[in-house]
């Protein structure tokens, strides 16, 4: 009989209209790192929410050390020693690190906070595990990696020994990921048990002991990492063989399509400039990737290029034409296609039908209107063609409300619309975010096909694997500046990480040179 | 196993079809809402005066049929203000300024009616057009504020309700040709400025109801068939996506509020230019510093009509019908104030219940479609086990 600390047996959790977990069993041994692998929507988060007491399962039971336990809410989970680092941190921005750690379990005397003993405990823990934090720093002032440490310290402060990490590496640089892995190993050595939720196979291979795979709400299997390969895991996760490598032919570079000179964009949220004096070119027939950790000015830079936001200084040229002052539609007609970062907010009118969304950039062109009246038939046949050509799947074809479509098909619809429109440059911002492997493959292929057709592609991505696979040239953004320009073939993920974290820069600040 | 899936999906298809037809769900929701409003209204009459409540309520319901001409006459202005609110709402703008636009439209129509000497055949037409211009002006200003300075249209249009009302009262009181101070009312309009009647006896119903319905139909076509309507609704649904698609939101905001203002202004013109049932007289306006109620009634009309121009036609007629019935119900000893309360309860309860209902209907619709997709795999797994 194996020694399991937590057993989730035959868990079934239904939501109206969907079975998120269908008869899933997960057994966690004491002192192991157990990966939970699955695509988006496979039911990982639901299963963890059941363990954490956020949802009650319809069927199945949870055992701790062989005894059946009932977890009704996160406090019950906490009492059982279960702690969780959520994918989106649950921290209060305007509180200090210390205040966030003790939140909910504040030590007090007659209602008065006793911060001193809390501070001692936090400092002791942080020293013990090498989780350096400044207890008095405000959350909003510290880096994302640091915020994650605070989340980990929160679990340790509560003496949890079953630690759940929900997609913890999504926001980290490669170096920070390595550090996190080391910390996880240290926890395991001490006898803490770790559940590590992810869809990144490399990380599982690197750190986990065993792995449970879910697909579409169902339990697929459990394997020991030392007996398996990355390929086998991906086959279990997706249900078929997956091609990781994107095949690209070498391609002659064409003319400069987009060129940006000394662009500065002021930030809407903060007082400072989000993009500082950035210059770069994108040529026909190449995929240039803007890499960087989220929030280093990529979003603002793209808004400036597409015309969604004004620039405070600098100039933008597209195919030799100055478009610095042009409005969004002029830019779009001059040849910029834009796959926006947030497809629900910008890319689609969710309450419109699929066909209406497919003409969102073109409804006013003579092809689709006469004297201001929309040509319904022309729109329909155009939509039918795009749906067929780009394999956009939906319940009712062109009249399907876009809101009811899956994320992958929504993205395909945007892709179809932007690719089919005449363009010289595609700006794709995190085009594969939240999509399953099949859709990711498809979108990657389409972007490479655009490059091969002699178009310029500017890709903004946070996924390092995507950056390494797709791009010809990589520009790294850090704190609103381009700090490095790398050849995708010659660089490594580690080098990229150094640039992303600001530890290295090959392009010096112009202002410093001047001063 | 194949058969089973097919048959179960068929049953769900039928349910889905009913749920899916948007018009159906909106229509049933409106009926349910009205029913709830009526029940609530009856309860109030019951409390106010139990003895007569049944007869009184009966009159409230069917009284309007006895005054069919008046029902349409009184429906006209609120149909127009309803369009003014509903049309702007499609773009996500809350045009609470329909009252001010209505008052301005009325003043412009009055001014042309009194001050301009025109041939009989076109005088009333010019009056109507002047009313439209007045309303447009009062829609344009909040539109400019919203588009260029991002001032919330609710705030500007509330202020413009007051500005419009006081301005009009001041201008009328200062104009000897228009205002008879001994009566504290405007003078009688010349017959040439009054709208052609439809000839229903004892009623002021006139050509304007036909114009109003025509305008509603035109707005319906604009919203659903034109690029402008496409942009307007896209902006209403998601202003970020419309900006992303390069739509000119500043122009659209102004244009929408100008059109909305035109509708409310026409409403004001239609109301004041209506022919009187007594020969030699006309409708008059009393400048007493009160915001025009027809503007606010337009909000209820638009809400009950789900901001759909066709729906607004029906909701305007319904509300007018209840109001006529209510007036007659006072024959059973109900004080006019109680009747007003009952009418208000019915209108607003209907409108709010309508809002709730359409939310509920949407929820049910979503459930059905999801259940269907979930039902299939679960049936499969049962077979497998």
Automatic annotation (TrEMBL), chain A:
Entry-linked Pfam families: ABC_tran (PF00005)
Q: How does it sit in the membrane?
A: Peripheral membrane protein
Species whose genome carries this gene: Desulfosporosinus hippei DSM 8344
Does this entry carry the keyword Translocase?
A: yes
Q: What is the lineage of its organism?
A: Bacteria, Bacillati, Bacillota, Clostridia, Eubacteriales
What molecular functions are annotated in GO for this chain? ATP binding; ATP hydrolysis activity
The compartments listed are: Cell membrane
PANTHER family, sorted: CARBOHYDRATE TRANSPORT ATP-BINDING PROTEIN MG119-RELATED, GUANOSINE IMPORT ATP-BINDING PROTEIN NUPO
The record, for InterPro entries, names: AAA+_ATPase, ABC_carbohydrate_import_ATPase, ABC_transporter-like_ATP-bd, ABC_transporter-like_CS, P-loop_NTPase
Task: Give the protein's recorded name.
Answer: Simple sugar transport system ATP-binding protein
UniProt key word Amino-acid biosynthesis = no
Q: Which SMART domains match?
A: AAA
Task: Write the record's keywords in alphabetical order, separated by commas.
Answer: ATP-binding, Cell membrane, Membrane, Nucleotide-binding, Repeat, Sugar transport, Translocase, Transport
Source domain of life is Bacteria
* A GO-annotated cellular component: plasma membrane
TrEMBL record, chain B:
Molecular functions (GO terms): transmembrane transporter activity
**Membrane-related topology note:** Multi-pass membrane protein
Write out the annotated subcellular location. Answer: Cell membrane
Positions of transmembrane segments: 24-45, 71-89, 96-116, 122-148, 160-180, 200-223, 253-275, 338-364
Keyword set, alphabetical order: Cell membrane, Membrane, Sugar transport, Transmembrane, Transmembrane helix, Transport
Q: What are its GO cellular component terms?
A: plasma membrane
InterPro entries attached here?
ABC_transp_permease
Q: What is this protein called?
A: Simple sugar transport system permease protein
Organism equals Desulfosporosinus hippei DSM 8344
